[in-house]
Design goal:
Elements: E1 2-6, H1 19-31, E2 36-44, E3 48-52, E4 55-61, H2 67-70, H3 74-86, E5 90-94, E6 107-111, H4 115-118, H5 128-146, E7 149-151, H6 154-159, E8 168-170, H7 177-181, E9 193-197, H8 206-219, E10 224-228, H9 234-246, E11 253-257, H10 261-270, E12 273-275, H11 285-292, E13 297-299, H12 305-308, E14 315-317, H13 323-335, H14 340-351, H15 353-370
Parallel strand pairs: 1-2, 1-5, 2-4, 5-6, 6-7, 7-8, 9-10, 9-12, 10-11, 12-13, 13-14
Antiparallel strand pairs: 3-4
Helix pairs in contact: 1-15, 8-9, 8-13
């Protein structure tokens, strides 16, 4: 079987970064044990072809059109032609379903985000509500055309009710094997340390995290914060730096930028809590990665995070609506003794790449066996 996997992947010479890139890198590497996999990357700065980790990566050059107009038209047609040249048996899209709008090859989509909500945090403010409404309609039509959906979190079904009428399967994101294999070196109680992982941008709410940490720092004079992630919005990043300086937090906030896997493993191991305050999430990779390292999470009970955190077991739900209230909740969590070995053991069963690959391969076979006649026949859970 030849699989064409469509989605984000770094250009030659760059390391894997965001959540979707990590999923594709891990899943494609695992599937190459039994399949021929080619990753097709739209939106690349330059056309290129390379081979990594046993699979081929084909970069398609970005077309000069606004994204909301481009991705389901010319970009989708270019992807369909690329899949035809590869003679793929099945197409697996990681990202917007619109990439598969004109796909003739049997196709499935892993829904990693809710595009019409994510667009609310894009850079351009003009006509944002029109773009969101347009994407909501287009994505629904494209999901119907693709016909088969992988749901990474039950939150997807809550936000996209049309998915329940399509053949779909709950398959969680896989974590990179290094998060599972590396010996854990947790210094429990040695540090009261928070870590946040993600791009420094409005959707991830980095400034909100800093504001909460400022309130926490007044309550707990020993706590520190590590911020791991690239700045993708320069003006927003500058605002964060100004806030750190104004609050006198420079000595207690470490800005590491984007970290490689091995460094990120060490950051999880030496931290006390992963803090997530995003304005929109589905099933963040950083949460899965932290859990397989046994690191508890502090986050509001919203979006997909409410399904990933069991309050008091593998983290806490931040229920207060104020920074001062949330600071007290975090202090209580830092004082709590979480069973990090139990957290890691349970998460390893859910996010192990070999398990995710086996479930994905089984779904591929069912899609090919039933073809597009399965469209609209309901769940496959």
């Amino acid at each position: 079987m030849r699989v064409a996997m469509i989605g984000d992947y770094p250009p030659p010479g760059r390391c894997v970064s965001g959540g979707v890139e990590r999923v594709i890198d891990t899943l494609a590497s695992e599937l190459t044990r039994s399949l021929a996999v080619t990753v097709v990357v739209p939106n690349s700065a330059e056309a290129a072809t390379e081979r990594v980790h046993g699979f081929e990566v084909v970069h398609l050059r970005r077309l000069p059109l606004p994204g909301v107009l481009r991705y389901w038209t010319f970009e989708a047609l270019a992807l369909s032609r690329a899949v035809g040249r590869l003679r793929a048996d099945i197409v697996h899209i990681h990202g917007p379903a619109g990439w598969g709008m004109w796909m003739k090859t049997p196709c499935l989509v892993t829904v990693h985000g809710i595009p019409h909500r994510d667009i609310n945090f894009s850079r351009g403010r003009r006509f944002r509500w029109i773009k969101a409404a347009m994407m909501k309609l287009l994505e629904r039509l494209a999901r119907r055309n693709c016909g088969n959906i992988i749901v990474i979190n039950d939150y997807v079904g809550d936000e996209l009710p049309d998915v329940s009428a399509l053949p779909h399967q709950l398959i969680r994101n896989p974590v990179d094997p290094r998060f599972l294999a590396a010996p854990r070196q947790t210094a429990a109680g040695a540090e009261r340390r928070l870590v946040t992982v993600g791009t420094v941008c409005p959707r991830k709410n980095a400034l909100g995290i800093l504001q909460l940490f400022a309130a926490l720092a007044k309550t707990d004079p020993t706590v520190t914060l590590a911020v791991c992630g690239d700045v993708t919005d320069r003006a927003y990043g500058d605002a964060c730096l100004r806030f750190i300086a104004a609050q006198g937090l420079s000595g207690r906030v470490a800005l590491f930028g984007n970290l490689g896997m091995d460094d990120l493993v060490r950051e999880y191991d030496r931290s006390s809590l992963l803090l997530i305050l995003s304005h929109q999430e589905t099933a963040p990779m950083v949460a899965a990665e932290a859990l397989v390292r046994g690191l508890p999470i502090a986050a509001p009970p919203t979006f997909g995070l409410k399904n990933m955190i069991v309050h008091g077991v593998n983290g806490i739900h931040l229920k207060s609506s104020t920074e001062a209230g949330r600071a007290l909740e975090i202090v209580a969590a830092l004082d709590r003794r979480f069973d990090r070995n139990a957290i890691a053991a349970e998460a390893a069963q859910l996010y192990a790449p070999e398990r995710v690959a086996a479930l994905t391969l089984d779904f591929y076979h069912r899609v090919l066996a039933h073809g597009r006649s399965s469209r609209g026949n309901g769940a496959s859970r």
